[in-house]
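Translate structure to sequence.
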């Protein structure tokens, strides 16, 4: 997901989310300096919104307009939405992955890599 350049683009993103769930891809590499051992991994998450997400086309209040009215940083958020925001959460169907992965760094991935690194260091 990229950050929208304008409010209208954020509205287009949200409208597309009804039928095209956005995905995030994150990666992490851990490096153990003394041994030179490294481990890395990739994590993805797909965000599914309810088809009823308000986009202003049915006379409903557009979700982006609601967030702008609250002075939320729409243009600073990848995809134009903060999935942790209560107004956004009420329109989420599910996330295939974890919320922290969507927000930037998968805790599960980091913990798995730490475990992998520990195992490699034992050898």
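Result:
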């Amino acid at each position: 997901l990229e950050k929208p350049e304008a409010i209208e683009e954020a509205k287009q993103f949200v409208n597309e989310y009804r039928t095209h769930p956005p995905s995030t891809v994150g990666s992490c590499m851990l490096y153990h300096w003394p041994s030179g051992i490294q481990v890395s991994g990739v994590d993805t998450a797909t965000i599914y919104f309810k088809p009823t997400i308000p986009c202003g086309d049915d006379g409903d209040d557009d979700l982006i307009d609601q967030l702008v009215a609250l002075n939320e940083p729409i243009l600073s958020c990848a995809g134009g939405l903060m999935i942790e925001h209560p107004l956004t959460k009420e329109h989420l169907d599910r996330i295939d992955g974890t919320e922290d992965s969507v927000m930037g760094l998968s805790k599960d991935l980091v913990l798995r890599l730490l475990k992998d690194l520990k195992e490699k260091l034992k050898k």
